[in-house]
């Protein structure tokens, strides 16, 4: 996916530090006239509001929900500046990066990952919150 939003969101990885250890960008620069969007944490509910027990299905649903909430504001994943990932169990990175890459493509946003003891509902295993600019 090419970053169709290059005048608002620009990403880079400086050659003065090690390359990212995952699929993210070290630096995300926002143009001065951009509108900022802050989204509540997105979870892995399906369309009916059900939360699957399987971690990978929760991760897939979460990224699908991110695309949908962005679209509700006429935004795309290219507008995402930063994603914070909160997980209660070890992340299956092979699966996660498959759906992450399908969502964000070759220019992924900046990312932080944290493992926590619990999220807002006991059945939640992953939650992502994000900031976007457009």
Automatic annotation (TrEMBL):
It holds the Pfam family Ribonuc_L-PSP. It comes from the Bacteria. SUPFAM superfamilies: YjgF-like (SSF55298). Gene3D superfamilies: RutC-like. This is RidA family protein. It comes from Paenibacillus paeoniae. The lineage of its organism: Bacteria, Bacillati, Bacillota, Bacilli, Bacillales.
């Amino acid at each position: 996916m090419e970053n169709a939003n290059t005048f608002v969101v620009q990403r880079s990885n400086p050659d003065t530090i090690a390359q990212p250890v995952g699929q993210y960008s070290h630096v995300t620069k926002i143009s001065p006239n951009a509108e900022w969007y802050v989204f509540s944490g997105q979870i892995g509910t399906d369309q009916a509001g059900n939360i699957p027990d399987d971690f990978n299905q929760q991760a897939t649903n979460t990224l699908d929900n991110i695309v949908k909430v962005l679209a509700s504001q006429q935004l795309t994943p290219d507008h995402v500046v930063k994603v914070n990932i909160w997980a209660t169990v070890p992340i299956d990175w092979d699966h996660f990066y498959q759906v992450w890459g399908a969502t964000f493509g070759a220019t992924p946003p900046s990312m932080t990952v944290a493992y926590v003891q619990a999220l807002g509902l006991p059945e939640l295993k992953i939650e992502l919150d994000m900031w976007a600019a457009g």
